[in-house]
Design a protein that fits this description.
- The model has no long low-confidence stretch (mean pLDDT 95).
- Helix 16 packs antiparallel against helix 20.
- The protein is mainly α.
- The chain has 20 helices and twelve strands.
- The radius of gyration is 32 Å and the shape is elongated.
- A hairpin with a 3-residue loop joins strand 6 and strand 7.
Length: 467
Amino acid sequence: MKSRTRFAPSPTGYLHIGGARTALYCWLEARHHGGEFILRIEDTDRERSAQAAIDAILEAMEWLGLDYQEGPFYQTQRLERYGEAAQQLLDAGLAYYAYESREELDAMREAAMAAGEKPRYNGAYRDRNEPFREDPNRVIRFRNPQDGVVRWNDKVKGEIEFANSELDDLVIFRPDGWPTYNFAVVVDDIDMDITDVVRGDDHINNTPRQINLYHALGKPVPHFAHLPMILDPEGAKLSKRTGAADVMQYRDAGYLPHALLNYLVRLGWSHGDQEVFSTDEMIRLFDLKDVNGKASRLDPAKLGWLNQQYLKNDDPRALAVHLRWHLQQQGYDLNQGPDPADVVVAMRDRVQTLKEMAEAAAVWYQPLGEYDPEAAAKQLTADKREPLTALRAAFAELAEWSPPAIHDAVKAVGTDLGLGMGKYGPALRVAMTGSTQSPDLSHTVYLVGREQALQRIDRALQFLPVA
């Protein structure tokens, strides 16, 4: 049977970093084995599920490039199917109706705790064979086996075992007529032919109950892989302050989607000492059996480093697609500035994120503001009039407006005047950008554009003091 995995988020909020890693591992496992990846929205929590959260999840999946072959499926559209499966268990004597009130259940649990026992359902209705009746307290409970063990070989955690005596008869249908998580997810995974259930290790306690439901429904049990937690840099549980952020906030901060995927895949998986992986390499090399069973820690410095590797090495045209969004977020008119791909070439070695790149690009997309006072006082001095005038003439006469041509022109002016670059280069930089901080000078001038470059030199010449 070919591999079929699923990512099944609950739409009660955005897609956070842990969920994104789970989705990635599901996606890679299916791709690695030539299988299929399914997206399912588990939206039966009617009080907390929201359309805005569904939209946020779908947007994040699209931005990350985690395409799915089937879905999205919605549990709220499958209620009739859950009812059929519950009736199958009732007819087979593997489930039963129970009618305790909330007060009776609370008293049951309090009595168990007072006796030093685990608070749980005591099976009061298990053998009463009560028929269906209209009752606001009516639930359907699964008749869990009372002896033996549930055992599985987890692809990440290894051999795991639970005694059935530790499991009570879980509710599979609530009084409101909606299925519970543990029941709906089993029916879904059966109907969708899921072969590998990949999820966080906070679900381990659900797994023995679900395995018993598979057996009761007469269906094969999938493989399970429970992923360890992701911790913050200090080793504590993630919070919004320490990394449990909406995945789209990483986009907003200027990270590339494939850089984030590369970062996520290494939070629990490795292939030798390799750090940078293309998507094709991840698909070819990834296997769940190689995932570390211990928790991983976020490392923002590594994410920044990885992002910069992609900025330095990817095709500028491909990067420009992502940069364009950030330039627009800055409010720039892209019709009044350089090609974003050229900005990438100029800035890629100087920044770690696209947001930094877009912010620095203001000097090319907006009118030049005031000069930095310190830079202007030091560089725009009377002795710079001759080289700046010569540079203006050289730029005006260039047959080709390109970084190499500009570089040659700047160098030729220095040769003609017998000046080293340090004597006039910083002044040209201040004229172009207002400060002495910018990328390679020839790229800086090129991105300003010929007409603007001449105007900015004219402005600088007017600023110069009279000798």
